[in-house]
Amino acid sequence: MEHRHPFVPYSPERYEPAEMVRRGEEFYRFSDRRRSVRSFSAEPVPYRCIELAVRTAGTAPSGAHQQPWTFVAIGDQETKRRVRAAAEREERQNYEGGRLPPEWRAALAPLETTSDKGYLEVAPWLVVCFAEKYAVRPGHGRIRHYYVNESVGIACGLFIAALHAMGLSTLTHTPNPMAFLSEICERPAGERPYILFPVGYAAGDAEVPDLVRKPLEATLIRMPGNLGL
Ligand code: IYR
């Protein structure tokens, strides 16, 4: 951004320790109920929900506050069909054409994913997040963006959490390669497809693998000697 920002006071909420823990537990339990879904209901979802999820994504911190993200919402059946066809074309090469190295295939095997991406036509919305590697200002050329992957990753995390808060499901789908999304969504060269999110209600008969989350002891390491209550 060219202009400077005035500084304004900021006083986030404070809670008593017991209330902090209660709120943290509640948010954790809510987050722990979220699962990635590959089986969607075709039931329509209000566009307002997509707007709210993207507004939430846009609250993410970003390198130099450059906000290097753009979300494209696709609700049109014919465009969804084109996305599915292009994604499956690529994935057939991955799964059936031997493009996925054996080690990668082995890592995916427990999830039972295949080149069939039918959910891309069933979910009422496909939301494609683009990462803006650089901006183009007429007369200035390219303006480099910083920490694009970190910034866009955080924005996508918030997007997923917002959908979950509304009772909606999604999948962080990364068809590989996904350059076809730039073409279908008509995005400029500085933007790269980052994640394709089918968004909708989970199908009534949806099933998910019974995965176990890594325990806290393996996720958080407390170094000795630090202060803490
Ligand atoms: N993009 C492929 C393969 C795939 C890769 C990973 I890593 C996953 O966690 C899941 C799938 C596909 O969408 O099937």
TrEMBL record:
Pfam families: Nitroreductase. Signal peptide: none annotated. Keywords: Flavoprotein, FMN, Oxidoreductase. SUPFAM superfamilies: FMN-dependent nitroreductase-like (SSF55469). Residues 33-201 form the Nitroreductase domain. The keyword Metal-binding does not apply. InterPro entries: Nitroreductase, Nitroreductase-like, Nitroreductase/BluB. This is Nitroreductase family protein. It comes from Nonomuraea rosea. The lineage of its organism: Bacteria, Bacillati, Actinomycetota, Actinomycetes, Streptosporangiales.
